[in-house]
Design a protein that fits this description.
It is a single chain. The chain is α+β, with helices and mostly antiparallel strands. It has one domain (5-132): Alpha-Beta Plaits, CATH 3.30.70.141. 40% of the residues lie in helices and 17% in strands. The protein is built from seven helices and four strands; from the N terminus they run βααβααβααβα. It has a four-stranded antiparallel beta sheet. The radius of gyration is 14 Å and the shape is globular. It starts with a strand and ends in a 7-residue tail after the last helix. Bound molecules: uridine-5'-diphosphate (UDP) and magnesium ion.
Length: 139
């Protein structure tokens, strides 16, 4: 995946609360083009692999439970400086620390249930995009 791309998930809480439309609207309004997108549900094995970097952390079990409890929207987004600009758009991991107007400030309930994922590097954007989409889907 090119470095002008990032990967996002609208997490189960966003889907449950009916926030898909509002969050996608904000993503588009912020200049991101949706390159690939699907509604899908992660298995326990999927979530354990996706978040493997956190598998020693005390919140890992809860994180896997949360991320597998219902559907997510997975998407690849394109924009100049996509990774950094998307992290700015979503705000801090803990919504209590997130800047006004960010997606997490607007829609996240807590540090655990924080509405959206955004890749933290170009390398991880490529790995995470490929985790959810085949080459043919990444048009
Ligand atoms: N998380 C959590 N408790 C914490 C830190 C993180 O439940 O104390 C969850 C939260 O859903 C977060 C995810 O684990 O989005 C990954 O954590 P990371 O530190 O990578 O935050 P992010 O990159 O999503 O901002
Ligand atoms: Mg992270």
């Amino acid at each position: 995946m090119a470095t002008n791309r990032t990967f996002t998930m609208l997490k189960p809480d966003s889907v449950e609360k009916g926030h898909i439309g509002a969050i996608l609207e904000k993503i588009n309004a912020s200049g991101f083009r949706i390159v690939a997108m699907k509604l899908t549900q992660m298995t326990t094995a999927d979530a354990e692999e996706f978040y493997a970097i956190h598998n020693e952390r005390p919140f890992f079990g809860e994180l896997v439970e949360y991320m597998t409890r219902g559907p997510i929207v997975a998407a690849i987004l394109e924009k100049e400086n996509a990774v950094e600009d998307f992290r700015t758009l979503i705000g801090a991991t803990n919504p209590a620390d997130a800047a006004e107007g960010t997606i997490r400030k607007l829609y996240a309930a807590s540090i655990g249930e924080n509405a959206v994922h955004g890749s933290d590097s170009d390398e991880n954007a490529a790995i995470e995009g490929a985790f959810h989409f085949s080459g043919r889907e990444m048009f």
